[in-house]
Amino acid sequence: AQGSRAPTQRFVDSFAKIYTPIVFIVALGVAVVPPLLFGLAWMPWINKALVLLVIACPCALVVSTPVTVVSGLAAAAKAGILIKGGVYLEEGRKLKSLALDKTGTITQGKPVVTDIVYLSGDESQAITIAATLAGRSDHPVSAALRNHFKSQSTLVLEEVADFEAITGRGVKGRIGNQWYYLGNHRLVEELGICNEATEVALNKLEAEGKTAVIISNETAPLAVIAVADTVRESSRQAIVELHALGIRTLMLTGDNDLTAKAIAKSVGIDDARGNLLPEDKLSVINEELGKYGTVGMVGDGINDAPALAKSSIGFAMGAAGTDTALETADVALMDD
What we know:
This protein is of the alpha/beta class. About 50% of the residues lie in helices and about 20% in strands.
């Protein structure tokens, strides 16, 4: 609890521990020294000692500081900003750099399917497998696939065994006797099954600023599915206001580099880093802390949690954010 108090409040408390005894000693001296040493009347000097105590008492200073902090926290809460302690309220003025996640932070976090490029095998099977794996994942891109395929009433989902999320890459599951994967460019490259046709499809879609995921089996990619997300209406204005405060902005995303740079350019963000795993985001935050001292991080997902924890102030998107992000962050923006 002491660690979450504002620096000013901690200073005032420390100051009062030293100042208050000194005031009492001085007041006692005023009350007894003149009568004892100089034979003066007691009552006038006792009254003067009491006046000194009233005037010099640090009560107003000690009480006013926490009241001010609580008022600030309450005002922020009314605006939909939950701050977990006065220290973060005061540290905000020191921010020099702010890193932001892309999906769900800069963008709406509600992507929609725009393209499907079939590469090999049966097209209907590829769609069925993609819909099945997406149905077990809570990632925004998986939600886009789920919503898209839900409209196809003839689609029958398969049973999945050994379903597993692969951090920063995608998901996998066993259907029948074969493993299937739904994930990003990095995943198919690590599986060693990325081919020329897949690269061509990915490069084309990523150049258009879209997020591409690949459905594949253990031996070959079956299809590339592209989704696109819309930028929040408030994002551009927020970046302009941050720049006006002298704060550098940086986008950190697990999405491909081309899409990251396209979105960053559209809203005016200073720098963009793509293809980042959670540990990569953490490394970037460490780098920013070394350069700028006080660094913030805004995110909403589990993969943002390490960076949120490491930053000077972590901001979680409350409405769209995961429980892990909300727990880790120092500030929750309840009205995304």
